User: Fold these one by one.
Assistant:
Number 1:
Amino acid sequence: MAIFLTSNELNTALESIFEYADEHLILISPYIKLHDRYSSVLKTKKGNYNLKITVVFGKNEDDFSKSMKQDDFNFFKDFPNIEIRYEKRLHAKYYANESSAILTSMNLYNFSQDNNIEAGIFTNRKGILGSLTNNLVSNVTGQDTLENQTAYYFERVIEQADLLFLKVPKFESTMLGLSKRYTTSVIETDKLSDYFNNTIKSDTFKKEKFVPTQSVNRQPTNQMGFCIRIGVQIPFNQKHPMSDTAFQNWKKFSNNEYPEKYCHFSGEQTNGETTFSRPILRKNWSKAKETHRL
C-alpha cells in the first residue's frame, strides 16, 4: 500500500516510523538535525538493544558538521545498537522501520520539517500477510513491489557507504547456552569522535574514510563472492550468501525460495533464478565447485 503525503501528514507519518521501530530503523538523509518531536520519540528507544539503527548522511565532504551536527552525533552514539555511514553522492531521503517506509524530498532537518514544501510516498507492509502478497506479486508478474524495490536499492546504498561509527550489543550465554543475556554495548568503529573533537587533521581524516568500503570488481576468487540480493562483494559462503544488511531484511520472513537478483559466485544478475537455498546459477555451478572446492 502506497500513500502520497504532504505537510503535516508527512511529519506525522515520519514520527510513526520512529515510534513503531522495534527491530530496525533506517535514516537516510544528506542533512541531519533532529527536530525535537523526533528526538523525544527516539529517547524512549535507548533501552532497546534489539533495535538496530542505521544512519546515512552525505554532502559537505570537506566539513561534515554542515551535514550532521555534533549534538546529533552525540545523541545517536548513546544508543546501544547503531551504525553511522557517509555517502558523498547522497541526495535521496529514505526513512524506514521493519514494516513501513517513506521515500521523500524532506531532509531529516528541523528547518525542512517546519518551513519547506515537501512531499513523500508512504509504504506499509505488515506481517506475514504482506510478505505472502509481495512474494505472490513478484512471482506472477516477474517484478518486485514498490516496497521491495526501494528496500533493495537503499540496502545497497547502505552497504556501499563509508562506515564511520559502529556500536554493537554484546551478550553472554545463560541456561547452559539455551539463551543469552545482554551485558553491554561496544564501540567497534569510531571515526567521528576525533573529527568533532578536532583531534585529527581534516585532510588525514578524509584520506582515512573516503576509501570505498565495498570494492566490487566482479571477479570471483577463492575467498570472495557476491550478495544475492544487492550485489555487493562479500566473503563467499554458500550457506550465508547475503551481506549483513540484506540478511537482516531477508530473515524477517526467512523465505528460502524467494527469488533474488544476483549470483553468489559471479555477481551477475539472475532475473530471480537464485534464491537463499540456491544462491549460485546452474551454469556457474561447475566453476564454483572448482574455485571454492565445494
Note: Confidence is low (pLDDT under 50) at residues 127-133, 135-143, 199-218.
Number 2:
Amino acid sequence: MIAGMVSVPRPQISATMRETENVTPLELFFDLVFVLALTQCTALMADEPTWEGLAKGILVLSLLWWAWVGYAWLTSVVDPEEGAVRIAMFAAMAAFLIVSLCIPQAFSGLALEFAIAYGFVRAGQIALFVIASREERELRSSVRGLAISTAIGVGLILGSSFLDAGAQGAVFVVAILLDVGGPYFFGADGWKLVPEHFAERHGLIIIIALGESIVAIGAGADAALTFGIAAAAVFGITLAAAQWWAYFDVVALVAARRLAKAAPGREQNEMARDSYSYLHLPMVAGIVLVALGLKKTLGDVGEPLKLVPAFALVGGLSLYLLAHVLFRLRNIRTLNTRRLLVAVIYLALLPVAVELPALATVAIVTAIFVALIAYETIAFADARDRIRHQLTSELGSPATSNPTPSPARSRA
C-alpha cells in the first residue's frame, strides 16, 4: 500500500467528543433496563405500602438513578456503539438487570446480591471513563475524584447488606449523599459533554418514567373492567399527559438551549450537573410516586386511599412540580409561582385524599393539573409560540450568539 494512503487506526475508546448529538439506538436499548428498575421500585413500595416501604423505594431509586446518570455522562464522551464500548454497555445492562431483579428483596434476602451487582454497574462506568480519559489530563483528574466517591458509596452499600433493614437504610442514605455529593466537591472543570445529546437523554428518561405510570395503571386494574376502573384509567393517562406537557411543551426546550449556550467547561458542566443529574431525580421520583398512587387507586376505585398511597399520589405531584420550580430557577433565575402554588395545593389535599373515594381523588388532582396546563398555555400563548418555534429551530441548527431568553420568553 502506498505510504501516503495508509490510515492510522482510530482508538476504539477515546477521549474525543462523540461525533453525533442524537441519542443512539444502543442508549435507548440500555434505558429499557431502567424501565424494569422503575417498575420494581413501584412494586417494592406497593407490596409494602408503609412509610418504611416508601423510604426503601425512594432510596433504591436514588441509587439506580445515580448509576444511570453516570452512563449518561459517559456516553457524552464516548460513542457507545464504537468497538469495545458496545460490549461493555451490554455487560453493564446485564449487571443493571440483576440489580433490578434484586430490588424487591434489596433490604432482605437479596441484599448482598443487590450490592454486588450494583458494584459491577458502577465499576463498568469508572473503567470506561478511565480508558476514555487517558489522553485528557483534566478529565482524568475528574474521573479520579468520581472513582473515589463511587468506591466509598459502593463499599458502604456492600457493607450495609450485612445489617438489618433499619441500619441498612441509614447506611444507604449516607452512601447516596457521599456518592451524589462527590461531583459537587471535586469540581466540574474536567468533564466533557455534548449538550444537545445530554438534554435529549434526560428528556427520554422522563418519558420512560411516565411510561411507568401507564404500566402501573395496567398492573393496578387486575379486576374485571368496570366503569370506575375505566374512568380511573382515563384520569391516569390524562394526568400522565399533563406531566408530559409540563416538561416537554416549553421547559425542556428552554433548558436544552440554556445548556447548549453555556460556556463549555465549568459553567456548562455545573449546569448539566445541577439541572439534569440532580434536579431530574425528584422529577423521576415524583412520577414514580404518582404511579404508586395510581396503582393503588385502580385496585379499589370506590374506597379511599390509605394514608401512604394517598401521600404518594399528591406528594408525588407536588415533588414533580417543585422540581420544575427549582429547574427553572437554576436555568433562568426566575420563580414559577404558579407551579409552586399548585405544589402546595396538592400537599394540602392529603386530608381530603384519605376521605374521598380513590376515583374522586384522582379526578380532582387530574383536574387541577389540567387547569394549570390550560392556564399557562392560554395566558402565555404568544411567548409559548415564539419559544417553541424559535428554540425548536435553534436546537436543530447551529446556535446563535444570544444565550439569554427575552423577558417575554422567561415568563412562559
Note: DSSP finds 17 helices and no strands in the chain.
